[in-house]
Amino acid sequence: MISDVPEPLSGPAPRAGIRALRLGVAGPVGTGKSSVIATLCRQLADRLNIGVITNDIYTDEDARFLRSAGVLPAERIRAVETGACPHTAIRDDVTMNLIAVEDLEADFAPLDLVLVESGGDNLTATFSPALVDAQIFVLDVAGGGDVARKGGPGIARADLLIVNKIDLGPHVDVDVERMVADATAARDGAPVLALSRKRPDTVERLCAWVLWLHQQHLHGQHVPTDPGPMAPHFHAMPGGGYVHAHDQDSEHEHTPR
Ligand SMILES: Nc1nc2c(ncn2[C@@H]2O[C@H](COP(=O)(O)OP(=O)(O)OP(=O)(O)O)[C@@H](O)[C@H]2O)c(=O)[nH]1
């Protein structure tokens, strides 16, 4: 199920010479981010010129997986080794990723779509709108049926939430419909897609959403939004620590209280 993918736009012609749509894919470890990207490349490569940036902490494993899957020419898949907690490189200081995206766009111009895969992290990691125009957050049923209820910025406010690996529901005692309903309730009407790479109907819906978003981008009708702020979190300090939150309108500030 996906809540309404609108009809493709009619009306004014797309803007000429516009840069690629930059689409982030984030979510906890192992939920299927690389598989979603491989699926999109496989299905859409004859309609869109695609490039991929992967983020891993210490390796280029995700890039190697995608290259070996043969879903795109290998040189269009580039790895960023963040060397730090994944959210640092996709949210706090996006410089490494932004340079990688811009280099890829320059080397293979004109690209239509750049997919940026986050390193697998927890429920709080989301992309900065300084790096991507839109983002997908990926959960999977094997992580537990209650995860969607736990919320967080990606679950609540990513442009699309995927509940992945729905083919596994019966094997892990998860009621997929219930999980999707919980996710939908957490998102105030924003789209939720139940996905399995083994279910072509769900793959088609994923592709339809990405093509629709690309059209929105071309027509200048997509407005990037920030799914942040992060949930309140704890900073350990010598002799103690403190909890703080980032509210959406304030600077990213780490002053002890
Ligand atoms: N049954 C099933 N397995 C899937 C599906 N999608 C992905 N997987 C499997 O889930 C595992 C993790 O998939 P990945 O795509 O590597 O997940 P990831 O989120 O990129 O992983 P990290 O980069 O390590 O965080 C792999 O063994 C995939 O084959 C699906 O739709 N159904």
TrEMBL record:
An individual GO BP term:
urea catabolic process
* Domain (CobW/HypB/UreG nucleotide-binding): residue spans on this chain: 24-193
Q: Which N-terminal stretch is annotated as signal sequence?
A: none
Instruction: Identify the residues that bind GTP.
Output: 27-34
Which Pfam families does this UniProt record tie to the protein? cobW (PF02492)
The cross-references to Gene3D superfamilies, in alphabetical order and at most eight, read: P-loop containing nucleotide triphosphate hydrolases
Instruction: Give positions of region: Disordered.
Output: 223-257
Q: Provide ranges: composition bias, Basic and acidic residues.
A: 244-257
Q: Which GO terms describe its cellular component?
A: cytoplasm
Could you state a single Gene Ontology molecular function term?
Answer: nickel cation binding
Kindly state which keywords UniProt assigns to this record, in alphabetical order.
Chaperone, Cytoplasm, GTP-binding, Nickel insertion, Nucleotide-binding
Localization per Swiss-Prot or TrEMBL = Cytoplasm
Name the major location. cytoplasm
Annotated coiled-coil segments of the chain? none
What NCBIfam families does this protein's entry cite? Answer: ureG
Task: Sum up the protein's function in the record's words.
Answer: Facilitates the functional incorporation of the urease nickel metallocenter. This process requires GTP hydrolysis, probably effectuated by UreG.
Family recorded in the similarity comment: Belongs to the SIMIBI class G3E GTPase family. UreG subfamily.
Subunit structure of this chain's protein: Homodimer. UreD, UreF and UreG form a complex that acts as a GTP-hydrolysis-dependent molecular chaperone, activating the urease apoprotein by helping to assemble the nickel containing metallocenter of UreC. The UreE protein probably delivers the nickel.
State the protein's name: Urease accessory protein UreG
